[in-house]
Amino acid sequence: MGCESCGSGGGTPKGCQSNGTCGTDGCNKLNTFDWLTTYDISDNDGFDLVEVSFKKGNHKYFYHKPQRVPAQTGDMVTVDAGTGYNVGRISLSGELVRLQMKKKKVSPDNKFYRVIRPATERDLESLKHARELEKRTMVRARAIARSLDLDMKISDVEYQADMKKAIFYFIANGRVDFRELIKQYAREFHIKVEMRQIGSRQESALVGGIGSCGRELCCSTWLTNFSSVTTSAARYQNLALNQSKLTGQCGRLKCCLNYELDMYIESLKKYPTKARYLKTKQGKADLIKTDIFKKVMYYGYKDKNGRYNVIMLDPITVQSIYEANKRKEYPDEFEEKKYFKETTVEEPEHQFEKDLTGVIELPDEKPRKRRSRGNRKGSKPKGRRSKSKRNRNSGPKNKGGNSRKK
Q1: Which residues contact 239 (CB under 8 A, 6 or more apart)?
Q2: Distance from C-alpha of 380 to C-alpha of 384, rounded to nearest angstrom
Q3: 128 neighbors 155 (Cβ within 8 angstroms)
Q4: Worst-scoring range by mean pLDDT, 105-109, 271-275, 374-378?
Q5: In what order do the strands lie in the sheet with 153-159?
Q6: Per-residue pLDDT tens for 40-66?
Q7: DSSP-derived 3-state class of residue 307
Q8: Given 45, 193, 349, 360, which residue has the most CB atoms within 10 angstroms?
Q9: What percent of the chain has pLDDT over 70?
Q10: DSSP state letters, 123-182
Q11: Residue 194 has pLDDT above 90, yes or no
Q12: CB 47 within 8 A of CB 95
C-alpha cells in the first residue's frame, strides 16, 4: 500500500518504479491520470507541450518537448530551468495538456522552457543528493532568520537538481525586509536564493499530513482553489462552534465545511425562516434547532409550572402556527410530531434444560464501609487529643496558667 518515500514501507507502488504515485495517491500530491496513454491512439496534431511535476507533485509547469526527445508520460526528464537544469516527471502529454492549460488559463502562445533530454543516472543521483540537503538547509535557515529577529517562518526549501538555486518558502503576517537574510543565505549555502511568501493553507499543501477524517489533506492531494470559509457555514449545518474541532492543521477553518453547505442551504429553503418564535396559549416557544434529516424543528417553552419543555414540530405545523400568530390568533396547544410509537415488547420465556433443577441465587452484597484516613494502619490521627488531656485542660485558667478551684 505504501512505498519507501512515504515511510510506511513494505509495498511497491503501481506503475511508478517505487518513486512516484501509488494506488492510494499517498506519494504524489495533486496527482493527474493520463488516461489517453492507456489506449493505442496516435496523436495526429502532435501537441509539443508537456506538463512536468517536481518534488512529487508540489509544483507543475509546462515545457516544450522537441520531437527528438524520446519521453512519454511517467518518464523522468531533465528540463531547462533558466539558471541551470532541473529534473522532474512528465505527468501529462498530448491533448490533455491543452485541456489542462485551458483550465489553468495559460496561453499556448507564451514562451516555455524546453525539455533537454531524458534523465540519466547522474541526473537522478544529483536530484537525490539535493533532496537530502533540503531538511538540513531548512533547519539552518530558520536559525539564521531567528538570529536576525525577523517575524517570519521558513516552511520549506526546494533545491534545483544542479544545486545552483534554492527556493525558500516562508510565512509572514506582513511584508518583511529580508535583504540581509538573502545575503546571509547566499554566504552560508553558496547558492542563488529565491524567496517566496505563501499562506498557511499553502504551507499545509506543501508539508502534507493526515486530517481528522483519517485521510490525507485535501489541499495536498487534489484541492487547488482555496475558497473562503466562514463560521456561518458551521451554523447552517448545526455544528458546535468549537474552534479546536472546526480548524484544520493550517490553523484556519476546514475547507470541508463548504463541501455540503449547498445541500444544507437548499434543504433549509423548505423550512420557514422567520418563525423564530411561536405563541400559543401554552406559552411562547423559541426555536432551538432545525434538523433537515428528521425533517423537524425543535422548540422550547416554559409551561405554567415553570418547567422547560422541548417539542418537535414539522415545518407545515410551524408555518400554520406562524401564519396564525401574524393574524394575532393563538392556538390552544402545540401539535407535537410523534415519531416513536409506544410499543410493548414481550420478553421471551427462558427455556431451561432438564438437568437444571433450581434457580441460582446470588448472595447479597454487603455495603462496604468507608475507611477514614485516620483508621489506616501505621497512621496516627492528626488534630485530635486524648480525653485525659481534654479533661485536664478543660477548667478555667488564671494568668499564671494554673487551674483555679473554688
Answers
A1: 245, 246, 257
A2: 9
A3: no
A4: 374-378
A5: 153-159, 165-171, 192-197
A6: 766 655 688 999 999 877 888 999 999
A7: coil
A8: 193
A9: 72
A10: HHHHHHHHHHHHHHHHHHHHHHHHHTT-S-EEEEEEE-TTSSEEEEEEE-SS----HHHH
A11: yes
A12: yes
Task: Convert 294-318 to b/e letters by CB count within 10 Å (16 or more is b).
Answer: ebbbbbebeeeeeeeeebbbbbebb
114-137 tens-digit pLDDT: 999 999 999 999 999 999 999 999
- Is 14 in contact with 22 (CB distance < 8 Å)? yes
Contacts of 273 (CB under 8 A, 6+ apart): none
Given the DSSP bridges, would you call strands 85-93 and 153-159 parallel, antiparallel or unpaired? unpaired
Report which secondary-structure segment, H or E, holds 291.
strand 283-291
Cell matching residue 67: 520531437
Determine the pLDDT at residue 339: 38
C-alpha span between 359 and 351 (Å, rounded): 13
Strand (E) or helix (H) holding 49: strand 49-54
Helix or strand (DSSP H, E) at 297: strand 296-302
* C-alpha triplet 115, 117, 118: angle, nearest 5°: 110
Output 313-318 pairs: Cβ under 8 A, ≥24 positions apart.
313/278, 313/337, 315/270, 315/271, 315/272, 318/271, 318/272, 318/275, 318/278
The answer, as to whether pTM is greater than 0.85, is no
Q: What is the mean pLDDT of residues 189-193?
A: 93
Q: How far apart are CA 370 and CA 50, in angstroms?
A: 80
How is residue 260 written as a grid cell? 455540503
Q: Are 42 and 19 in contact (CB under 8 A)?
A: no
DSSP 8-state code for residue 99: H
User: In Å, how far from its chain's centre is CA 214?
Assistant: 9
Take residue 23 and report the three cell numbers written for it: 494506488
What cell was used for 84? 541551470
HSE at residue 271, side-chain half, CA atoms within 13 A, is 22
